[in-house]
Specification:
The chain has 103 residues and is an alpha+beta fold. Helices cover 30% and strands 12% of the residues. Strand 1, helix 1 and strand 2 form a beta-alpha-beta unit.
């Protein structure tokens, strides 16, 4: 993952990371998942889910190992935040994202 470049990422983006989502096989830095936010030139927002591990709280499936963090409440919060970001991105007059950020 050390050769990944975000230099051409110019489209507006919501970068979402889990605070505890780290795997030493991908990087020795614990904050590497936020690189898209810090290294891209385009307009973006960073959403850090504190306490979230891999999968950001989603429930993959019965006995699935894709996530280390099964938390339905976090999934609901993430869904609401993504929807508010998209509402404002698609309808700039809609204050959903700023309201969610303030909350």
């Amino acid at each position: 993952m050390g050769t990944t470049s975000f230099a051409t990422m110019t489209t507006p983006a919501l970068v979402i990371v889990g605070e505890k989502d780290w795997n030493s096989a991908f990087s020795d830095r614990k904050d590497w998942r936020a690189d898209a936010y810090f290294q891209s030139p385009g307009p973006k927002c960073l959403l850090t889910l504190f306490g979230a591990e891999h999968g950001l709280g989603w429930v993959a499936a019965y006995d699935a190992k894709e996530t280390t963090d099964e938390n339905p409440e976090r999934v609901a919060a993430l869904r609401a935040l993504v929807w508010s970001y998209l509402r404002t991105a698609l309808y700039p007059e809609d204050p959903a994202w700023s309201v969610a950020c303030a909350a």
